[in-house]
Amino acid sequence: MSNLILILSAGQGSILSIALISRVVKSDYFRFFFGILLFVISIEIWTYWGIQTRTIQSDFAFPCWNLSSYLLFPPALNYILHRLRFENYKPNKLTFIVLIPGILEIIVNVIRYYSYYYFDFQFLNNNVLWIFYTQIAPLIWLGFVLIINMKWKKQSTKYLLVYIYSFLVFLLWLVDYIFPHQIFTAVEIILIATLFVLGYLAYIKPNFFQPPSVSVLDLQYSNYNHVKYCSAFKNYIQEESYYKDSGLTLKQAAKEIEVSPKYLSYLVNKFYQMNFKNYLNQQRVQKVIEELKAGKHKKQTLLSIALDAGFNSKSSFNAIFKSLTGHTPTEYLKNIDKNLSENR
User: Fold this and answer.
1) Domain 217-342 top-level CATH class
2) Distance CA 192, CA 324 (A)
3) Are 205 and 197 in contact (CB under 8 A)?
4) How many CB atoms are closer than 10 A to CB 82?
């Protein structure tokens, strides 16, 4: 039964990983790197099955263990974690260059296996440098990846699950290296469970392997300092009270903070989840409420307060005020007076 579970999980993982890796032809790099992770895990399970059944010693055994490298795991995981953390994260040349060490190991292992009659690679069997390169370096690299991605606040559930799982793999891998074969079964159980769970998710929820959506504008403005310009915009509108200008336009505001109107519109929508006009009206309504609470209506009419806050007509003021507060200005004022009288 245990051997059947190994075959099912490894087979399922292999099929799923190949399907995900093939997405690279459509520039779907998130699924591509996710596929690499699953492929490394699947080969590990196949190898474990071969050892358990002694199939690995057969002359007819397919040397699948030569087709994978632990050196592929850290760079693939690093891309996935970065992509889950940053919506506008894009792969660069280095993203793919760091896969070369793992690919080189696979090439060397395949050559060693198929050309042992022609080339003598025996010197690699107990070579300290080769052992470090193929076994210790991947572990150190994985630890480094986990450290630089140790960001838990305000992260998605998917990011946290991937990180926690990777940390657990790293921890068990480290313990297994220090105490060989002591927890090997526990490692394999975790890997098998992972393949079954991911296979199940791939069947019932294909979008699980879909990264956070990135809009065209997110990509277009990925190099902009959003925090800087958002702060400048907020200071211009709120601190300098330019929202009181009833004729203020998007173009004028953009010119003041030295950005394009299109970018400012994108910025307001992204950070405040509303358009420029609605943002101004929100600030104006807030100002009216502050003035009413301060008792300004005892010296000025309600309309006068509204016009000073940036509204240009009574009708628009009444409609906007009610849409944002749920009450007409008069009703809101009555509630304020009522609360003041009750507190006396």
Assistant:
1) mainly alpha
2) 53
3) no
4) 18
pLDDT surpassing 70 at residue 307: yes
Q: Which H/E stretch holds residue 297?
A: none
Backbone angles phi and psi of 186, in degrees to 5: -60, -40
223-267: pLDDT as tens digits: 778 888 888 888 888 877 888 888 889 999 989 889 898 888 888
Any idea where the domains of the chain sit in the sequence? Answer: 2-214, 217-342
Which 8-state DSSP code applies to residue 210? P
C-alpha distances (whole Å) from 208 to each of 19, 31, 120, 161, 214 are: 14, 10, 46, 12, 16
Residue the block writes with tokens 């099929």: 15
Q: Which amino acid type is present at position 82?
A: H
Which helix (H) or strand (E) covers residue 20, if one does? helix 2-21
Residues 95 and 24: beta-carbon distance below 8 Å: no
The closest of 3, 341, 13, 44 to 195, measured between CA atoms, is 13
Q: What is the pLDDT of residue 211?
A: 59
3-state secondary structure 112-160: HHHCCCCCCCHHHCCCHHHHHHHHHHHHHHHHHHHHHCCCCCCCCHHHH
Measured CA distances, 320 to 61, 242, 287 (Å): 75, 18, 13
Sign of CA dihedral 201, 205, 206, 211: negative
pLDDT of residue 1: 45
Q: Which residue has the tokens 């490298």?
A: 69
HSE-up of residue 298 (Cα within 13 Å, Cβ side): 5
Q: What is the value of pTM for the model shown?
A: 0.58
HSE (side-chain half, CA atoms, 13 Å) at 244? 11
